[in-house]
C-alpha cells in the first residue's frame, strides 16, 4: 500500500481569485467516486491505496482539469510506498503522535 501526497494546480486565463478551488473540488469529487481513502489538507491531498490505482486516478484527474478549461496543469507527487508492512495515513500520524507523548 502507498501513501501519496498530491498537489495538482490547474489554471486558465479566465480563472480569477479563488479559481483554483474549483479544480481542487473536482479532484475530490473524482477521488470520492473511486473509494480511495483520501484527506484534504490546506496545501495538498493525501491519498492511500494501491500505487497503480493511485497513478491511474492522477491521470484521470489531470485530464479532467483540461476538460474543465485549464490551459496548464502542474502536478507534484510524493510517494511513500512500503511493501514490507502495512502503510496507512492513520499509521503514519500515529507514529508521530506516539513520539509526542
Describe the model.
InterPro entries: MTH1187/YkoF-like (IPR029756), Thiamine_BP (IPR002767), UPF0045_domain (IPR051614). Belongs to the UPF0045 family. This protein has a single domain (2-100), classed as 2-Layer Sandwich (Alpha-Beta Plaits). The protein is 45% helix and 29% strand. The chain has helices at residues 19-34, 51-67, 89-100; strands at residues 2-11, 37-40, 45-49, 72-81.
In whole angstroms, the N-to-C terminal distance is 27 Å
> What sequence of helices (H) and strands (E) makes up the elements?
EHEEHEH
In percent terms, what proportion of residues is strand? 25-35%
**Major beta sheet, strand line-up:** 2-3-1-4
Number of helices in the DSSP assignment:
3
Q: What is the C-alpha radius of gyration, as a whole number of Å?
A: 15 Å
The stretches of 5 or more residues where confidence is low (pLDDT under 50) are: none
CATH architecture heading:
2-Layer Sandwich
**Oligomeric status:** single chain
User: How would you classify the helix and strand content by structural class?
Assistant: alpha+beta
Largest sheet: 4 strands, antiparallel
Indicate the CATH topology.
Alpha-Beta Plaits
CATH class call: Alpha Beta
Family: Belongs to the UPF0045 family.
GO cellular component, one term: cytosol
InterPro entries: MTH1187/YkoF-like, Thiamine_BP, UPF0045_domain
Domain Thiamine-binding protein: 20-96
Task: Give a quick set of tags describing it.
Thiamine_BP, 4-stranded antiparallel sheet, 101 residues, elongated, alpha+beta, UPF0045_domain, MTH1187/YkoF-like
